[in-house]
Backbone:
């Protein structure tokens, strides 16, 4: 016991030799945690500034930011107007990376990715399409032998940005869905089993033949799960990938007004190569900063992620922002801390 | 005993009684044997999940346990040099604070309830202690956030430790009460008869006799809170960097395990299992030390 | 008997002979200290209750009684009804208690009566170690090891081979995540609490009781059943109540194996929901005030249910104690 503590303390002492204490504290989304932890570690190594980020959930991050217990927040869904009003001042949204939500399934007989349209997807998750060999699925998958078994739906039980993005897409493409479960971080699901976390859904789908679920792209990649090719607004069937997610943002970015606050949804984005179920994830900071030292740290980091950080995103299966956006965001960072 | 000289044979009635008794005894012996088997089965069934879980942890996590694990801070995915040194120390600190809060209150309350059994306050305290036990850990965390984090505007190890300590109280109270009640009255009376004042009787005689059981209860309670994640999310918060400051956010093994376990990366999964092994090992070592320190030389059951 | 506190020193080693009827400073301090600590408990409970009641009041006020009876939980439309969660909490805890209590008492009896001395410490230690496993590890083990085993072969075996599928309790498809899985995981988790208290209480039963029974010709089992267990009865029940509390409030592990379906179903093979996992699932992401308030209202409901269940258990203990006194 003593040995353990001494060993750990030695490690700590060595760490302590990099003088500074933690400069900034942030909390929020779990989805970008891997890339943020890499960024903050790299940033600490390069600049010596320590930033402590913990993933307690997007809602938690927004709440802590509103209470002032953290210096910045992170969220997979943009803050609602009500949440903005509850905060201590105007909050700026900075998109960091783009996440793609992959639809994964367990059909061992399939060789090529399953093709799905938004309407069919909504039908499955609404419980209207119950069997894999339903005519609506076979119609868009010619030549594929689909079994006559039940479709077992797996969804998230816990609130999550992934659910928000997925339901955002379904609400956009399906009237039944928008009038039914709607759009949100947690929903009342008509059918299916609720699994906790992305790993819960991935695990459920992996273990249950005939199951279908939605997970973040990184989970599908890391667990070697098959992902469906979803039809986008241009009619093409696109598989989720880093490139197709960035293409979605690029497609949407062209339509953004000059004074956008970046609280935009990029589901069903225009563009031939765009993956339709994609979304930004944001860093949330107050425009007015009371502490000038913290403001300086924040600005420095924001500039850093836009230039250096973005380059390491793809290595962890996160889609970087399209170059056109980076320039605009850089200008926006400079307006931080200049009062209301 | 029936009047039988050694030479006379047993009468019919005596034989019937003897046979009945023998049959009854045989049946009772069978029941005895069956129950012994059932109890043995219980033991197997109870140790089975533990063995399975530990085996699973060892198989998946043992590979990640190296020197770096114990001396390094958490590293991003893909970098080999990651560790959980800050989380290990953080958990030790949190457990220390929790024990400092939970054990005195629990033991004190337990002694009070045991000594003042009939009074309404004792009954109320016992009842409310059980109710507190049923509180989900996340609710305790929310409560601690409201009273210990929000007013000061930042997270701290202290708030996390207090939340955990509060969760320990019911178990320690209950165990202490039961153990104090098992101390034979005769021991108490002997001490009082020898002139010990009440407080000395309680401390020296009663508590020391019951100490083994109290320590067991405290350890089991500590084991539980050491592995809780939910209350720490909004109190201790977690820290990627080294910190032993109790007024600042601090890393903790359960938090780190949780963060890594829900990630998509196998590397991190292995670290999570390794962290769980270390956590269990910490509890194990603490238990051994505490039990060795309070081992009774005299069995309580040896009395009257 | 008011004897003046004459301190008579018999010799250096023995404590001073002071009448116990005198309220010395030591006594006053002692009683003050334990009273203070004892009061901490009700104080804490009242504070927590007040805090969650205050936070949950808006939701309770808005939905009224339907909060407890409605099955619709829709965060998007902001309609909240907690009935399935309430049902799930009660059922999963009942299953867990039934399984865990019998096993835990069995192990404790074995440990205190039948086990060889050399095995006693190690096995007791192993049982207590179950409490050291973090709940998140239980949950993940549940997902990766327990659920697949349940899905195939255990559940089909129960339902088809044993024919239990004909009853309402085992009907329906077996996905894996289910009330049964939750009950099992909970049982494993609450075992150590019941077992450790039971074991200590059983060990503290005076040896003379056992010896007397054996001397009267009882078999070992009969000695335990008639002489030892009655002594330990109330202590064991106390341990069971501890386990019950834990079962009602467990969050992490249950939510990973129960399927999280807000529906009331009689079948143990069907997914369900519990109040604690509902709060744990949605709290981190809930950002609207109405949603947060509804979650706190669920917390308050759980609190009230814990009180009711504990009161019922207390009453049971009281009955048992009374019965013991009558038959003693």
Residues:
């Amino acid at each position: 016991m003593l040995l353990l503590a001494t060993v750990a303390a030695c490690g700590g002492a060595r760490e302590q030799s990099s003088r500074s204490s933690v400069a900034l504290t942030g909390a929020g989304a779990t989805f970008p945690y891997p890339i943020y932890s890499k960024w903050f570690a790299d940033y600490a190594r390069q600049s010596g500034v320590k930033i402590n980020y913990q993933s307690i959930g997007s809602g938690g991050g927004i709440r802590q930011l509103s209470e002032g217990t953290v210096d910045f927040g992170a969220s997979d869904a943009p803050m609602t107007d009500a949440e903005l009003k509850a905060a201590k001042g105007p909050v700026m949204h900075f998109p960091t990376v783009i996440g793609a939500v992959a639809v994964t399934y367990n059909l061992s007989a399939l060789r090529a990715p399953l093709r799905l349209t938004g309407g069919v997807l909504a039908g499955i998750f609404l419980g209207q399409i119950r069997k894999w060999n339903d005519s609506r699925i076979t119609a868009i998958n010619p030549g594929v032998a689909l079994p006559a078994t039940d479709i077992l739906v797996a969804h998230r039980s816990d609130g999550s940005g992934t659910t928000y993005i997925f339901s955002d897409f379904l609400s956009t493409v399906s009237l039944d869905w928008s009038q039914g479960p709607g759009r949100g971080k947690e929903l009342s699901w008509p059918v299916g089993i609720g699994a906790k976390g992305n790993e819960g859904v991935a695990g459920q789908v992996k273990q249950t033949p005939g199951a279908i679920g939605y997970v973040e792209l990184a989970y599908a990649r890391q667990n070697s799960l098959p992902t469906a090719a979803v039809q986008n607004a241009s009619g093409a069937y696109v598989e989720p990938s880093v490139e197709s997610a960035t293409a979605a943002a690029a497609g949407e970015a062209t339509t953004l007004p000059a004074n956008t606050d970046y609280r935009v949804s990029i589901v069903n984005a225009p563009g031939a190569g765009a993956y339709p179920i994609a979304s930004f994830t944001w860093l949330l900071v107050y425009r007015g900063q009371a502490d000038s030292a913290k403001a300086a740290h924040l600005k420095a980091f924001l500039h850093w992620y836009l230039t250096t950080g973005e380059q390491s995103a793809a290595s962890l299966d996160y889609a970087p922002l399209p170059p056109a956006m980076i320039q605009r965001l850089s200008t926006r960072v400079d307006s931080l801390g200049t009062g209301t | 005993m029936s009047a039988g000289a050694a030479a006379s044979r047993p009468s019919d009635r005596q034989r019937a009684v003897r046979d009945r008794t023998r049959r009854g005894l045989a049946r009772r012996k069978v029941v005895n044997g069956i129950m012994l088997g059932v109890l043995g089965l219980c033991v197997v069934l109870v140790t089975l999940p533990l063995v399975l879980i530990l085996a699973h942890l060892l198989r998946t996590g043992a590979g990640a346990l190296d020197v770096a694990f114990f001396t390094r801070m958490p590293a991003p995915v893909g970098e080999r040099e990651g560790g959980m040194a800050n989380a290990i120390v953080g958990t030790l600190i949190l457990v220390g604070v929790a024990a400092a809060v939970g054990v005195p209150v629990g033991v004190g309350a337990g002694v009070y309830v045991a000594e003042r059994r009939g009074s309404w306050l004792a009954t109320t305290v016992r009842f409310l202690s059980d109710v507190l036990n049923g509180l989900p850990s996340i609710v305790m965390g929310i409560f601690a956030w409201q009273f210990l984090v929000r007013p000061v505007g930042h997270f701290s190890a202290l708030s996390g430790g207090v939340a955990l300590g509060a969760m320990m109280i019911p178990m320690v109270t209950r165990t202490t009460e039961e153990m104090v009640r098992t101390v034979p009255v005769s021991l108490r009376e002997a001490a009082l008869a020898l002139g010990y004042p009440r407080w000395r009787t309680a401390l020296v005689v009663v508590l020391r006799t019951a100490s083994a059981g109290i320590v067991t209860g405290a350890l089991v309670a500590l084991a539980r809170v050491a592995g809780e994640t939910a209350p720490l999310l909004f109190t201790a918060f977690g820290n990627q960097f080294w910190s032993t400051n109790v007024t600042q956010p601090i890393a903790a093994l359960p938090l780190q395990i949780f963060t890594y376990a829900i990630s998509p990366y196998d590397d991190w999964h292995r670290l999570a299992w390794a962290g769980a092994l270390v956590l269990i090992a910490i509890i194990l070592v603490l238990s051994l030390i505490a039990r060795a320190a309070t081992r009774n030389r005299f069995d309580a059951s040896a009395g009257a | 008997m008011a004897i003046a506190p004459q301190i008579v020193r018999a010799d250096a080693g023995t404590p001073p002979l002071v009448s116990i009827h005198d309220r010395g400073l030591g006594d006053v301090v002692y009683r003050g200290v334990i009273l203070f600590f004892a009061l901490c408990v009700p104080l804490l409970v009242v504070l927590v209750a007040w805090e969650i009641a205050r936070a949950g009041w808006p939701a309770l006020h808005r939905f009224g009684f339907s909060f407890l009876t409605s099955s619709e939980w829709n965060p998007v439309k902001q309609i909240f009804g907690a009935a399935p969660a309430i049902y799930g909490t009660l059922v999963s805890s009942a299953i867990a208690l039934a399984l865990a209590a019998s096993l835990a008492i069995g192990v404790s009896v074995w440990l205190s009566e039948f086990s060889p001395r050399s095995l006693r410490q190690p096995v007791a230690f192993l049982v207590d170690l179950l409490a050291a496993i973090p709940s998140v590890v239980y949950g993940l083990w549940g997902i990766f090891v327990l659920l697949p085993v349940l899905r195939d072969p255990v559940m089909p075996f129960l339902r088809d081979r044993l024919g239990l599928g004909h009853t309402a309790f085992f009907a329906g498809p077996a996905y894996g995540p289910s009330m049964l899985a939750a009950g099992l995981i909970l049982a494993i988790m609450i075992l150590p609490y019941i077992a450790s208290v039971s074991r200590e209480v059983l060990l503290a039963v005076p040896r003379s009781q056992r010896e007397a029974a054996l001397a009267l010709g009882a078999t070992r089992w009969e000695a335990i059943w008639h002489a030892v267990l009655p002594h330990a009865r109330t202590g064991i029940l106390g341990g069971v109540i501890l386990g019950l509390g834990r079962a009602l409030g467990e969050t992490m592990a249950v939510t990973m194996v129960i399927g999280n379906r807000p529906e009331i179903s009689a079948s143990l093979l069907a997914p369900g929901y519990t109040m604690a996992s509902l709060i744990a699932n949605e709290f981190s992401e809930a950002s609207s005030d109405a949603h947060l308030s509804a979650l706190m209202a669920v917390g308050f409901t759980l609190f009230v249910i814990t009180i009711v269940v504990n009161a019922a258990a207390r009453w049971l203990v009281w009955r048992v104690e009374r019965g013991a006194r009558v038959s003693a």
Remarks:
- The longest helix of chain A spans residues 292-307.
- The interface with chain C takes residues 56-60, 62-63, 79-80, 82-83, 152, 157-161, 181-188, 192-196, 199-200, 203-204, 207-208 of chain A (CB under 8 Å).
